Task: structure prediction
Amino acid sequence: QTIGFSQIGSESGWRAAETTVTMNEAKERGIDLRFSDAQQRQENQIAALRSFIAQGVDAILVAPVVATGWDSVLEEAAEAEIPVVLLDRMVDSSPDLYLTAVGSDLVHEGRVAGEWLVSAVNGEECRVVELQGTTGSSPAIDRKKGFEEGIAGADNIEIVRSQTGDFTRTRGKEVMESFLQAENGGADICALYAHNDDMAVGAIQAIKEAGLKPGEDILVVSIDAVPDIFQALAAGEANATVELTPNMAGPAFDALEAFFADGTMPEKFIQTESKLYTQADDPAGEYEARKDLGY
Amino acid sequence: MNIRALPLYATIAIFLLAYLVCYLQFPAMLSTRVIGNLLTDNAYLGIVAVGMTVVIISGGIDLSVGSVIAFSGVFIAVLLRETGLHPLAVFALLLAITTLFGAAMGGMIHLLAMPPFIVTLAGMFLARGAGYMLTIDSVPIDHAFYETMQRAYYLMPGKGRLTLLGGTMVASVILGMILLHRTKFGTNVYALGGGEATARLMGVAVGRTTVLIYAFSGLMAGLAGIVFSVYTSAGYPLATVGVELNAIAAVVIGGTLLTGGSGYMFGTLIGVLTMGLIQTYIVFDGTLSSWWTKIVIGALLLMFILLQKGLLRLRLSH
Amino acid sequence: MTGATLLRRIAPQLLTLAAVIVLVSIYYPAFYQIVYVNDRLVGIPIDVIKRGAPVALLAIGMTLVIATRGIDLSVGAVMAICGASAAWSIDQGYGIGAALGLAGAAGLVCGLWNGVLVAFFGIQPIVATLILMVAGRGIAQLITGGTILTFDSDTFSFLGSGTLLGVPVPTVIWILTGIGFGLLVRRTALGLLVESIGVNLRASTLAGINSRVLLVAVYMGSGFCAALAGVIATADIRGADANNAGLWLELDAILAVVIGGNSLLGGRFSILASLLGAMIIQTINTGILLAGFPSEFNLVIKAVLVIVILVLQSPRIVPYLELLTTRRQRVKAPATKMEAGK
Amino acid sequence: MLLSTRDLTKSFPGTLALDRVSFDLKAGEVHALLGENGAGKSTLIKCLTGAYRRDSGDILFEGEPVFPQSTLEAQAIGIGTVYQEVNLLPNLTVAENLTLGHQPTRFGMIRPRATQALAQEMLAGYGLDIDVRRPLESYSVAVQQIVAIARAVHLSGRVLILDEPTASLDAREVQMLFDVVRDLRVRGLGIIFISHFLDQVFEISDSLTILRNGRHIATHPAADVDRMQLITLMLGRELAEETAVRHRPEVTGTSADAIRFTGVGRRGRIAPFDLTVRKGEVIGMAGLLGSGRTESAEVLFGAVASDSGTVEDASGPVDLRNPRSAIAAGFAFAPEDRKTDGIIAELSVRENIILALQARQGWARPIPQAEQQRMANDYIARLDIRTPDAEKPVGLLSGGNQQKVILARWLATNPRFLILDEPTRGIDVGAHAEILRLIEDVVAQGMSILVISSELEELVAVSHRVIVVRDRQHVSELTGDDVSPDTILRAIAAPHTTLEAAE
Ligand SMILES: Nc1ncnc2c1ncn2[C@@H]1O[C@H](COP(=O)(O)OP(=O)(O)OP(=O)(O)O)[C@@H](O)[C@H]1O
Ligand SMILES: Nc1ncnc2c1ncn2[C@@H]1O[C@H](COP(=O)(O)OP(=O)(O)OP(=O)(O)O)[C@@H](O)[C@H]1O
Ligand SMILES: [Mg+2]
Ligand SMILES: [Mg+2]
Result:
């Protein structure tokens, strides 16, 4: 079997891990995986999908860079009778156009993080700073929205500063430094919410360099559950992370196998778990388990 | 034979050769599907490269086009969502805006004697920033007219599609060829590229020409934005990051000198198709990891440019 | 250059910097506060000169490249390569000396590559360096294996987040590098020769300048500066992020050089002015963060500020401004492109 | 009056280029504009045609004040101009260069055929048989100059301005140009003619206007002044001694310290040739335009690497792979095209002068500032370079003064073999004499010189022997009494010389 996989890019450790896991899964199942990196550009992805169709692959996996704009190429795939499975992000198109989607709910992730914070501060006043993802990217929008929903009921919690850190460590650190400056050397900040772990790791360094204790003076909650954040959790420098599993391909391949075998239609959305990890969840062990996954 | 056209011939030869190599490895590369895709998938790039060619031949550069495409998509999507305007009306409005935007950049370049690189770099920030200010979401476009445009294609034998978008690109290239090679404006563009001071002394209205050049580039970027919005039926402020560099690369592969004054519009079309060919080849191959993809694209770019230089030197020495 | 002419040369940049600082402090009045805590100076100005380190370093090399009428789009990617090399060798346990050596060597090799393409193959600088800009990130990822390559070395991270006498180490590095390059080009004839090949390559070659070697050397200098910037960026976050290190920084660096009043057409250059340009850009960046606008406004604000600065510094406007400020005799306008020029 | 200026003033930073100049051009006259290098001739032209904006004063066209803001507007009035230095656009075809701005169109589209026909028509009468569809850059400087003239003539409905149009033309082409000019004069055009060749001035002009230091000095009917008077007016003093046409005996110095070129050449550019350069010898090189003199010089200097032959001097083989090694071997080369090959426009006069010396010393050993200043001021004084100070960017000097700066650059390296390609082109009479004297001086000190010049009188005056180049071959060498304009001309005049540029 030949399956085409259009990946967004390799912009973060998490995505690299997803690529690795997908390739490993394919190898285990004896699938001939055609991989294409779109370098963060939807137009490249659409072109890749078209090439897959022209090449006549058996199925297509795509991790869409953005939700909109897939209708016509998906229609083309449908005409060529090539099933398409979406990985980790959704599209706006009609569900008839793809076989299934495997992913987590980004808004839900944000909500889980928010709810954790509500319970962690336990009614005390809390001024939160937020490190957003890349402006305009769907995780940034949805994780912001989810978090706001999560803390909606708690009047004691307030987001006082929110800036983009572009999902990167460098910018996470840089922006956190200016947050600390702006908020009385960090004394006025009670918690940090970062849209991904990388920014949180950068921010933790900034907090330490400012002479504060991350995890105690400033609570740190973020999303993704990459190995490095477990190290921080183990060291007591971070407080919680919400997992986004990089193994989206496993369920996708399962669904495809069943479909090819006897035409079983999978559910339209296979949701992966958004598990919350805290310092209590054996972070050291989790780190060991993940560190070789290609993050 | 015309010496100035040598880079063009070299480009065409290399493109055909490369296509042959691809075909020998993947026979499916010669299917009408791939050919149709090559035109459709690179339509926006081809259109924007038409404008870029004019700019580069005049000795300038326009870094703003990628952002302008993104802005256009967002502008169309938001306007269609918020108002009941017909897409054609929105298109007209958009083209007016992007043309004015280009003209304003051209005006700054001329009046303030600032380098195009910097003015259009600021334009690049501004256009994308303007897109963000309209919306940070990706906004789907849901309009019957868009459906019609997407369905407007001719099905070639072998299921290849000759789409409206691909056609628009070809039409733009032809328009560009006429403009560049058959009008006084076109000759003035070459004159500017040959030397601004000399062109001025020879009576070329340098200011007007500069403004027109960047306005044209803005117009083409707007048109590319429309095509892109049809292509994706959405507007997304983060779209087409770095497309200006692809366009420049396509123009250069097409045999146009970045120093200005020499080049052909048709070469740009070949350049765009060459870029598309590289992309397609990499997808067909399908074994390259993310990083090898980048390295290979860089290497192929280098190879094309060196081959072209080599061929030229060979021809000139005879 | 005598003190007076130097001051005249950098006056526009100094004024701009002052203006930007005033603007920022309107939104953030505590801008000027600098305190000394935990053996380090803390305050927004310190942040600016620390965070501005990568762009400042890149601007040093970029100034020279632009003086030769070239441009180096690859510096961001070179930063990533060098950072990755350093992190890799620390990770392999080779120690900090080897890491620095490797990073520096990687930067020089990248510069050599660019320089050879430009000087010996005659490829236009934008295109030549575009190739490494595209491929370079791939090479960096090849080294890191696509992950953020983290390491544990306090000596190495000292380069990114340590302080010397309270001053952040990155600041010390860019200032020393700036002085080093400044002395190198102005205490020797290098500066003159570079300017000469930038204005007229052919005539310079005929006058006996070894322009090819000089061009290569200039691109190597740029690569070396990018290596330093890459090391700082890597040390700062204790990890090499091949994908994002130095992303789009080449544009900021070019902007810094131009705000520094250097012509993209080559010729006369001033490293000091470029460094001021880098600080202007960083002040804007930091100011935007401090002002607390929604992040979707960042780009527009930056664009507008940059445009205003460029307009005020444009060769057509400067003479008028000078007439307004110095109403003494008619001053020479050094930035004015000659009418009869090419 | 057809075209007049009243109290026209134009200043550049540090220079008052035109100081209340009044000037009248009548219809149907050829009016020569004369003056030393830097007197303001080109500036006056550029103000007239809107290329420069004047500071004050009036320009009257048929008595009406006009304010041309650009060349375009000047063209609309009917003023056609050939600018000094500014050639046409090398990247455009000859036809495009000729017709730029007034191409025949139909429905807004250029008609290529008609354009070419128009171009052919414009060139008719200049004896030029070239393919107008080829890029201008494929033709020699002389052809380009004629194309520029043809364009200006076509555009000049009322006034034709020629700023040193003959600098790179040979005698035959000059006559052709003069025929055209006479024809236009009969048709009632006013023609402004600038040249440093006084013979030509007297041949064609009806009246003369002399500028000095940006000031109007005098205007006379050409018939009323003689050569000496004219020179005195231009220089503001008497020319000490006009170089007489005389020739010196061959240098019979030992050939031991000579530089011997054997069989050097470059395929497609210049056939292999032999040359022995003795110490203290001046070798002239004569030939028609495009005969390969510049190519010879480039091979001798290593600017174009020779692909055959050997070069030796007393101490063995000489390395001439590139200009750098040639300079190291004590060679120097002042190229013909100073704008693209000579000056570094944005650098100061001082920096331009010390450049070659500095390049030879290497980057690590900068010449001290004080030393630079001393050298610059020394040469500015010695060569009488007209510049307010040594820090002025050399690109802002007048054409002739730029030439002197290049000369200074090479003298500063104190070479043993100096190659001068058209050293006196565009240089005024005073400076001309100065340069010839200079050549004498340095030769007396033992320097060897190769002079390429189209002015035979000049060659004869300075050379010990003369090499004649024809069709890219060194065809003969004239020594002793054979060195006279007559014999040179005869050697040059090969049966089949045409102006047509080579492939
Ligand atoms: N663009 C400019 N900027 C500054 N100074 C200039 C400029 N153009 C000319 N000058 C100065 O103006 C003076 C007159 O120059 P101009 O070119 O008119 O001389 P010219 O009479 O044509 O001399 P030549 O015979 O050498 O061509 C010179 O001193 C020159 O240095
Ligand atoms: N790059 C080139 N390619 C092809 N032909 C050239 C090139 N450069 C010059 N030529 C031709 O070579 C011939 C020699 O040109 P050039 O003008 O240098 O000769 P010259 O003897 O030095 O004449 P002069 O110095 O009087 O102008 C001309 O016919 C010219 O058209
Ligand atoms: Mg002149
Ligand atoms: Mg010559």
Chain A touches chain C through 41 residues (CB under 8 Å). Chain A has a mean pLDDT of 92. The radius of gyration of chain A is 20 Å. The longest helix of chain A spans residues 13-28.
